[in-house]
Structures are given as C-alpha cells and as structure tokens.
Design brief:
- GO terms for molecular function: S-adenosylmethionine-dependent methyltransferase activity.
- By secondary structure, this protein is of the alpha/beta class.
- It has nine helices and eight strands.
C-alpha cells in the first residue's frame, strides 16, 4: 500500500519537478573528486545489491551500476525518476527505478548489501525514521551511507534560514554530530567519516523570485566578514560563490541484528 502524501511531500515534489532537468545537468552533482570519495565510502563491488534512496536524477545510482552492482533507485518525484531513467539509458547501465517514499521503502528487510542516500536528509522532516528504514532493508553486515550538508553547530540556524529561502523543501541540515547520533541511536557501527566542501554559484541554484532576497542575505554575510552562514561566500565578476559543507558518514549494520530482531 502506498502511504498518503503529506503537505511536505507535495512541497518536495513541486520543488523537484520544477528543478528536475536543471538539477540533473548541474555539473557539481557529478564533480569528480566528491564522486570518488562517495564511491570509496560505498565500497561497492560487482554483483552487490545496492539501494539509492531519494536517488534524484540517478547520478550515484548510475555510477554504482557501472561498477557492476545490481542497483535500485527510489525517489518521491516522478520527474526525477524520468531524468534518472534517461541518464541510465544514455550511460548504457541498468538500474531498477521506483517512485516511492523514503519513510516507507517498498522492499523486504535485509534485501541490500549497501543502502546510500546523498543530499536528501535536509529535506526530511524525520531523518531518523528514514535512517531506520534504510537500516531495515540493509542486510546484517551491510553498509549504510549518508551524504549531506552538515553546517557547523554555530552556523546551523543561519544556514537553514538561507537554504529554506533558496529551496522551500529544505527542513534542517543536521550537524555532523547530530548525524552521527542518529547512527548511534539506530545501533550502527561507524566505518568512515569524510568531509569536503563543494563549490557552487548562487545563481545556478535559486529561483528568480527568491534571487533578490537571497542575494541580499549573502551580500550581508560577505560584507560582515564573519561567515555567519558557514559557507565561505564570496563575490567576483562571475557572481556569488559559496561552499556546501558536506559530510560522508558510513556505518555497518551488526551481523547480530537480524537474529536479535527475530528473537
């Protein structure tokens, strides 16, 4: 049974239907260094079963399929799944795509060797529940990988304020410590943590109706010189630039978890 769509789900679908094609084509989402770090954290080998949660336009899913993994992708937004299928066809890789909600993954427990999500947790109203679902469908001994923006604690509030203006489907970006705590609460064992900064131009990822207010917010942050947003913003002849502060956190699921949950 498909879970009913919430008001927030509708906001996500509206946002990413509008941005599906530009998002899919934005070069930073396939940037080589961050992609290499993502693949290293996933540690996928041929014939592994992999699930990409909130897969968007299928950038990670297609990269993992190229390794020879059996990849499944799921996303709430049909327009994103359409872009993902086009990418798989274009890159001549096989990925099984589904439209669905990360809170209610339509897969049996212990189905996948790897369960990954990238740049999605800041859209989730309850990321802890999403992680619990990811753990449920991961086999004991498998790996769960979450990649997302993680602002510094002292910048979190202002970072969220800017991101909500840029993207109305944004909820809150967790700090690295908060993200790690979710893994601890889910009974996961940490495997690796890696942090990087992803450079972006403001004008590449903002709707016209939000441009003036967001530009003013960034200009104030740049002029103040204190980096209250925590994104190291600067302006040059090409426009306003900033960095997304990103963390990759990978955990392993206990080999005992299946027997414990079944006892």
């Amino acid at each position: 049974m498909t879970a009913s769509r919430t008001h927030h789900d509708t906001r996500i679908v509206d946002q990413f239907t509008r941005w599906a094609k530009p998002f899919a084509e934005l070069a930073i989402h396939a940037e080589a260094e961050s992609m290499a770090q993502t693949l290293a954290a996933c540690a996928v080998t041929r014939d592994m079963k992999v699930l990409d949660v909130a897969c968007g336009p299928g950038i990670i899913a297609c990269e993992l399929a190229r390794v020879g993994a059996e990849v499944t992708g799921i996303d709430l937004t049909p327009a994103m799944i359409e872009q993902a299928r086009l990418r798989a066809d274009r890159e001549n890789v096989r990925v099984a795509y589904h439209i669905g909600n990360a809170l209610h993954l339509p897969f049996q427990a212990d189905s996948f060797d790897r369960v990954v999500t990238r740049y999605s947790f800041h859209h989730m109203q309850d990321p802890g529940k999403v992680l619990t679902e990811m753990v449920r469908v991961c086999r004991p001994g498998g790996r769960i990988i979450v990649i997302d923006a993680t602002p510094a604690p002292e910048c979190q509030k202002d970072y969220d304020r800017a991101e909500t203006l840029r993207d109305p489907s944004h909820t809150s970006a967790l700090t690295l410590q908060q993200l790690q705590s979710l893994g601890t609460e889910a009974g996961l064992s940490p495997v690796t943590i890696h942090q990087y900064r992803l450079e972006s131009r403001l004008q590449d990822q903002v709707a016209p109706e939000n441009w003036c207010a967001l530009k003013a917010m960034f200009a104030e942050d740049i002029a103040g010189g204190q980096d209250r947003l925590g994104i190291g913003a600067w302006e040059d002849a090409e426009g306003i630039h900033f960095y997304f502060p990103v963390s990759i956190v990978a955990w392993s699921k206990s080999m005992l978890e299946k027997s414990l949950t079944c006892s």
